[in-house]
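Researcher: Here's the sequence for the chain we discussed earlier.
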Amino acid sequence: MPSSAPSTPGSATDVGPGYRDHLHWQRYQAFFPGALRLSADNAPDEQWWRWRGLKVHVDRVDRPDAPAKVIALHGVGTYGRMLAPYGRLPALADLEYIAPDLPGFGLTGAPLLGATYADWLDCVRDLVRSERERDGRPIVLLGVSTGGRLAYDVAATTRVDGVITTCLVDPARDEVRRVLAARPEMARWSGLLSLVRPPLSAARVPVHWLVNIAAVSNQSQYANLVWADELAGGGWISLRFARSCLVAAPALPPERFTGTPLLLAHPDEDRWTPPLLSEEFFGRIAAPTRSAALRGAGHLPVEESGLADLDRAVRDFLDEFDLQ
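Model: Thanks. This is the structure I predict for it:
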């Protein structure tokens, strides 16, 4: 796609329907502790950001006096509004909160031939630059699920002040592909996908055909909601996007990732990406790091014990690096 400078996000009403019309996200709230739940009354403001020919949906909680901003990044099969309860954690509740729907998920469309992982990277990098142009406050990335790897790659190539991830795996490794895929044998398909050329690579398939959405949560009812959500696990992705995620090497080898402090807060009962896979990558990072286990929590943590651990770990991280 041709490059263009990012615009300033505007009101959602300037463009079209928002999450006041697509209400599936409200069904997730019952799984979170009461203080973190969203309703129509306390949901983030909705904005649209015109970026490289796309209209990117952005959730925002403006706090002009906040000492820092957090940009929350979702992974494959989820979207920005699903992360809003994490923004209500006490450790983050005083920060400005921003959560885009990345191309192809949530309310953000995709290019004609389908988005790629490189588009996700460019989108977030431009969003970071746009936020820096607004003011000089520190920016912390919060990457949940495969958004953790995205946060790492953005920080490796664009200046941010901190990275918080719940998952940090390298999908270029066979053992990672096996757990990410809907079925382990599908990990071998990445080579075959490289043979599919446009326009066939733009063909779309259901997300849950390729991705192990059933393991997104240890709460089966929550996982079923993600599976059925047409903006998330029940949506469609292009073969081009699937291949791009599987073959993308880290933007920097972890041994060369030296500047940005990083917290890995991994759910200790993650049935999708076991903690060991993240720890192997995390242990090689040269930058200042902290780690925490989220007790009793699944891949997308909704369990009260894991969320308490996440809040404590985030607070300690922000305190240590003077980000709040």
